[in-house]
Structure formats: structure tokens, C-alpha cells
Amino acid sequence: MEKTTITSKPTIRTPLATKSVSVELKQLVKKFPSMDGGEDFVAVDQLNLKIDSGELVTLLGPSGCGKTTTLRMLAGFEFPTSGSILVGDKDISNVAPNKRNIGMVFQSYALFPHLTVFENVAYGLNIKKVNKKEMIQRTNTVLEIMHLEKLKDRPPSQLSGGQQQRVALARAIVTEPNVLLFDEPLSNLDAKLREYMRDELRKIQQRLGITSLYVTHDQTEAMAISDKVVIMNQGQLQQADSPQNIYIKPKNHFVADFMGKANFIPATIKDCDANTIRIIILNEEITVINNVNFSIQKGQIVDCVVRPEFWKIDNEGKFNGIVRNATYFGNSVEYEIEINGFLITVSDYEHVKNGMKFEGDTIRLYLEEECVSLLEEGRKGV
Amino acid sequence: MEQSKTTRMGDKLSVKKKELQALVREPFLLILIILIFLSLLLFSAYPVWQVLKATMVGEDGLDLTIISEQLTSSVFLHTLWNSLKLGMVAALFATIMGFIFAFAVTRTTMKGKKFFHLIALLPIISPPFVIALSVILLFGRNGIISNGLLGLENTNVYGFTSLVLIQILAFFPLAYLNLRGVLESIDPSVEDAALNLGASRWSVFKSITFPLAVPGVLSSLLLVFIKSIEDFGNPMVIAGDYKTLAVEAYLQITGMYDLRSGAFIAIALLLPALTAYFIQKYWVSKKSYVTVTGKPSQGNIKINEKYIVYPLFAFCLLITGIVLLFYGSVVWGAFVKLWGVDNSLTLDHFKYIFTVGFDSIKDTLILALASTPVIGILGMVIAYLLIRKQFIGKKLMEFFTIIPFAVPGTVVGIGYILAFNEKPLLLTGTAIILILAFVSRNVTVGIEAGTNSLRQVDRSIEEASTILGADSFKTFWKISLPLMKPALFSGLVYGFVKSMTSISAIIFLVSVSWNLITVSILSQVESSRMGAAAAYCIILILIILFVISIMEFFVNGGFKKRRES
């Protein structure tokens, strides 16, 4: 039922007149006084972030990393302890939340349970005292964009999760806000619908060209939906970059570990020039791209980040290993392989071609050298 | 170190400053908070302070003679002990009865649960001394049981035994409702798990159900204890020589014109009541095992063994039978010419109260109808402020709102005559003072219901309204208040019922121009006009039922199309 109502492509008859603006967070700090009079809890620590106009930026991190607090400061529900929030070129850090012209989609959707779908969507227009004719017309337009025309007289309790989600989005965009905020909007949906709504959200955001900040703890979702991903941990920004760079070129162990499975393998620097670095890893010599952000010298020990799928099972491969464990996942097989006494994780997506390997088998592996990135030696998986 | 400490202080201050700025941005909200504060201070805290002051300050300054006089008076000590004894006995038996009732209704397959539930509610919505009145009708000198059936002459129903029986019957519904809530919220799968592990029904009860319900039992004990020692109507009618604090305070003031002794007795009543209240509110309720998960609990296997269900059923039947007998005798009494002497039917009593006694009905109705909306809306507004807004002195506001509720009516009544007896606050004898007393005394229940229901409303629903451009007032009016409708309804109903039926506080405040039904009933009883008293009770109960159903109509649906949730 969900499928039939949403598979047709959304069309916009009267595009919404959203004015795209950039957002900038400068030296943003939020401290919460501790209950027992001890040290204050620093929820957001010196955060600098720029969201270009029309861009969708995701704040990603484990719970308690400060991402939601950041979002709520932008919405106006929390006051920054210090720092400023610029929307366009206006500092709004002291503006009341109801005067900010920012739209928000809440984790729980926060639909008004006593109002119908239409009344929910029209609420913001009524508050802004838009005249009745325009109110009805604009509400209907948005309901159409979101494929909700048929449901407009229903109370939220009679809608499915996906439908509620769309009402929440409709309500947030109908007032043509400058900025749109998403607070883990998909976390209440089941896995299949979540993927569908994720793509739908992205399409509508791009169509409207509305500057958006999106909070999630799901790294797949973040990579799929964003122009830029911002990884946060303990209130601090770890890395702000394109999804590709975040995944392949993590700047530190935390980012590497948070974005998915990773092998952290120690290696020794043998030689380097402006573009490449030669390293010894697991007794073999390889050449990787030089994009390190720390100083290196010959003989130094570094950590290599290698995602499990960057290892290929290949009879011509340099590396010789013994299978210690194999787990079948359907789309891939995950192996634990011992190379020179070091245990690594390998994902084989071509297991049909390569054939299933079993515990004790010896295999040769090839490493995609351009996908290896180097980190300063340090604690693994912070 | 010193440095970091000062910056931290600075941060905290700047957070406070920002909060304040947020309030200043909504000046009306700020004004509203200040207004509520001032009225709470004036009408809740100040009168109680006046009572305290009266016991310690005489005409020539500090004067503790009243205290030393009373503390050494054997009459006073005896009265104090009387009240405490009464409270403890009534609390014990009312809680046992309430528990059995609640257990039977929530845990067995017994028939007639709805009926038992409705009958148990009867004592709650009726004026406090209907049962006392019916005890006189049944067991008094001309009682149909004592005199009519058993042929006893000159029976004396007045005294401790009657009083405690009446209070048990009048207050067990409180324990029942409280324990029913507790038993219902115990996750049934815990009991099922015990059964599954091989426990018998009895050991499940002994080792699971009862231990989990203990906080509820304790809070019922304390609540009934408070109700019992505060009770004015029943002891006034039936206690005879058995003196209690609430009645003595009243008699000292209206009979002996000794305001200060009355005030002292009221304080003696205040201390145990307040202690019990705060133990209940801040200690027992924290011990509660009840976990609110929001998930509807699965219906567990109800007890259907005959040897358990039948005795419980018989018990419930007996209790409801007694309640019905008592209320029935009041109805009957209203239509009988002269109870026990001339049993012919008549409408004279109704004619009497609709002519001579009509003023008090009219006055009561006017005052209750004026107070009820204020009680309802104010309760919701304060609940909203307490739960959703940050402001300095929030804890103090919360404390102020529970004072008049936790403080016995007698103390509030005396406090009001002390506080509002002089210009510029000369209010005694007016309708205003009665309305103020009704509002301040009864708003607490609305606040409690409001805060409970707001806690269950996802805060982001209001944030959604805010970010769409609504200020606090619009958000309250368009979003929060509609979502608090059930709480508003219970606030309104409670406010109305209490305004119509209370007596302990307002008996000090009534005047020639504003008299109330409950006071009229009392004076009818005192002059042995039982028929008229009974007729008043019936009219009162009918008015209450009528108004509740009208409120139900307006608050829950009615003109607005009903939306199923």
C-alpha cells in the first residue's frame, strides 16, 4: 500500500519560493551545568562549520557527540554558551526560535495529534497569518508534492510511519524556510522504507534547493544523502568532507572506525616523495598516495587503514594468508585471514566467481594500493 | 584552578542571563509568571503564615502562652491523640478494604466489576457527611435498624466506633482508586513469569504482587490518614463526645471566640497532615516500582479459581451493599415525613429547601460555577509553566501550589479570616473570598493532572509549533491545551465537586449574604431536621452529576466533531 502511493515521481506544479542561504557556525560552544556541581559538561566544543547555500550537510556521530545539541542551537531551542550562528549574513544566535524562519523535521515527527493532515501542514501558515486563499492554495501544493492529497482529512494516528514522515516534511517546507533541519528523521521507520524515504528526502531537498542540516547516527544514511558529512565526537569536529573522502581517506582512527569496518595495520615508511609514499606492510612493499596530514620520516611506523573490501582474492596477489574464519552474508563473504601472524578482515563480493574458501585454506591477496590511507600510529578504534 | 572556576561561574551566569533574555523576549509570559507568583504568595502561602503567626504573636508582640497553655492541657493532648488514633485506624481498615476491592477488580474474572467500580466512586462525589447522616437514619434513636428492626430505645450512635466506621466507608474509595492504578501498572508478565516458574496463586501474591504494590499501600495509608484527621463534616455530625482537632479548632473560634487557641489547634492538625503528605509525595512515590513503558501491557491470565473469586465477590458485594444501603436510606429519608415516627411519603422537604433554603443552593452553584473554569484553566497554565518553561523560582512556585492542598481545610479557613480581615484586603463576607478559597485549594489536582499529561506529550510537538512561528501563548492555546484535554476535564470535575461539597475551610468563610449547601446541611442535621438534610444531599448529588455530564459534553467532543484517536 505504501508502495503504490509513492512510486510515481513527484512533480512540482508551483515550486516553493524558498530563498537559499548559507549557514555558518563560528566557534560554537555549548556547556551544560552539571547536576552535582562538578565540571560542566561540554556538549559542543569550538565548532566551526560552513554550509553552502542549497547544500545538505550531515552531522554524524555516536550518541552524546553533540550533533543534536548543535542542531537544536540552530533551531533556537538551546542557547549557545559562546560563539555565533550566521544564517545568510545575519547573526541569529539571539533570535527567538519562533522568529528564525527555519523548518524542522523531528525524530518523532511531532505531528499535532489533534489536527488533521491538512491542519498540520497549514499550521505554520496560519500562525504567520497568511490570508486564507493563499493558505489553502499553498497547503494543497505541498500536499500534492508529498502525495498526501488523499489523506488530508485524516488525523496523524491513522497514517503509516512513512506517511507521517511526509506530513512532517510537508509541514516543515510549506512556510518556505531559509534552512531545513532534520533530526534523525528516518530512525522510526523500518529498514526498507527508510531507504526509500532517504532517497525521497534527498530528491525533494535538491529540487527545492534548500540549505539543510541533517543529524543521524547511521553512517550509510549519511553517505547516501549528503553533500558533505561532518563527523563529531565528544563535542568536537573530527572531519568535514565529502562522503567519499570520509570513507576512503579518514583523518583519524575515530573517523575510520566509525564509518565502517576497517583494518588498522602497522607499516614502516621506506621512502616518500611529493606524490607517493613507499611503505612496508605485512612484509611486503607497496606504494600509496601521499595525502597525509602529519610529518613523516623514513623508518617511522604508521597505521594503515584498509577497508575489508579493498583486499581482493587474487592468485597473482603479493600477500599470502591462511583463512581462519569465514562468515557468509549473501552479498559477500567475510574472512578472517592471517598474514604473517597478523589477523585481517577481508570482504569478498565476488565469492561466486572466487568460490567459497574455508578455514585452513591458503590464499593469495591483492591490495588496492590507491585505497590505503595512512594515520599517525595510535590507539585503534577510539 | 581559580581561573577556571571563575570562568565556569561566568558561563553559568551567562546561561542564566540567556534564559532570562528568552523570557524578556516574551514579556507577556514574564508578566504572567509574576502575576501567578504574587497570587500564590498572597492566597496560598500568606494565610498559612498568618495562622502560624497567630499562635506565636499576641497583641503585645511575641507571646507563647497559648502554646504552653495548650501543650499542658490534657483536653488538647487528648484531642490530639483522638485525631491520630482515628486517622491510624481509619487508614488501616480503609486501605485493607481498598486493596481487596482493587485486587478483585484488576486481577480476577469476577463479574460486576463495572458496577462495583461505580458504587465505589459514590462516596467521592458526594458531600463528606452523607454517610454520617445515614448512620443516624439507620442506627440513631429513631433509626430503622436500631429502633425499627431491633426495637432498641435510646441507642447512642455518637462516638468513636460510628465515626471510624463512617470514615472507613467514606475514604476506602481513595485507597481503592490509588491501589487500582498501582495494580494495573504492574507489568502482568512478571506475575505470569512467576506462575510459569511453578508458583501457586498464593505465592505469586505473597512474593510478587503484594511486594510490588507496597509503595501504593503506603501511599494509600498516608492519604487516608490525612483525609481522616482533616475530616470536619463527619466528626461534627457523629463524633459526640469524641473530640477531634478539626472540630475543636472550629468550636474554639466560633463558640469561644478564641482565635488564637483555634489557630494553635489547627497547627497541631497541620503538622501530622503535612508530614504525612510530604512522606507520601517525596519518599513513597520515589519507591514506586511502577515503570511506565508506554507499551500497552498484555492482558495476563486473570484469576478464575472459584475458591478465590467467590469470597472476593462476596466481599465486594457486601461493601457495595452497605454503601447502597446508606445512600438509599438518605434518598428514602428525603421523602419521609418524620423519620422513624411518621413514615408517610411527602415532598415537603424538597418544597422547604426550594423555598426557604434555596439561597444556599443558588449561592453554592454560582460560586462553584465561577471557580471551576478558573481552577481548570489556571491548573493547566501552571502545569505548562512548570513542565515546559525555565524560570527562576520554579521550585518555589511548585511548592506554593501544593500548600493549600496539603494543608488541612481548617487551617486554610482560619488563615483566610486572619489574612483578609482588614483593609486593604478586606474580603471576609464576600463572594470573592469563597472563590479564592475554592480556587487555591482545588487547583492542585488540575496541576497534577496537567503535569502528568504534559509529561506524556512529546516536547517536540510544542517545539514544532514554536519553529513554525508560534509564541508560547499560541503554542499553549492551540497545541498544549487541546492535548491536555483529559487533564483539563479531571481538573474541572474535581474543582467543581470539591467546590460544591467541601466544608472544612469554607465553614469559616460563609456569611449571611453568601451561604453554602454543605453548611446548610450541617445546620439542618444539628437541629435534627434529617429530612431536609437528606433532601439537600440528594439535590447536591444530582447537581454534581448533571454538571459533570455537561462538562463531559463540552470538553470531550460535543459540538466539535469527535475525532477518533
Describe the structure in your own words.
The complex is a heterodimer of chains A (about 375) and B (about 575). Chain A has about 375 residues and is of the alpha+beta class. Helices cover about 25% and strands about 35% of the residues of chain A. Chain A has helices at about 1-5, 65-75, 115-125, 130-145, 160-175, 190-210, 220-225, 245-250, 255-260, 350-355, and strands at about 25-30, 40-50, 55-60, 80-85, 90, 100-105, 180-185, 210-215, 230-235, 235-240, 265-270, 275-280, 285-290, 300-305, 310-315, 320-330, 335-340, 340-350, 360-365, 375. In chain A, the strands form four sheets. Chain A has a six-stranded mixed beta sheet with strand order 6-7-8-3-9-10, sandwiched between helices. A five-stranded antiparallel beta sheet of chain A has the order 13-12-11-14-20, with no helix packed on it. A five-stranded antiparallel beta sheet of chain A has the order 15-19-16-17-18, with no helix packed on it. In chain A, helix 3 (about 115-125) crosses helix 4 (about 130-145). Chain B folds into two domains: about 1-35, no CATH class; about 85-345 and about 355-560, MetI-like fold (Orthogonal Bundle), CATH 1.10.3720.10. Chain B is built from 24 helices and four strands. Chain B has helices at about 1-25, 25-55, 65-70, 75-105, 115-125, 130-140, 145-150, 160-185, 190-195, 200-230, 235-240, 245-255, 260-285, 305-335, 350-355, 360-390, 395-405, 410-420, 430-455, 460-465, 470-485, 485-500, 515-525, 530-555, and strands spanning about 55-60, 60, 335-340, 340-345. In chain B, helix 5 packs across helix 8, helix 5 crosses helix 14 and helix 16 (about 360-390) packs antiparallel against helix 22 (about 485-500). Classes of the chains: A alpha+beta (about 375), B mainly alpha (about 575). The interface of A and B includes residues 98, 110, 123 and 127 of A.
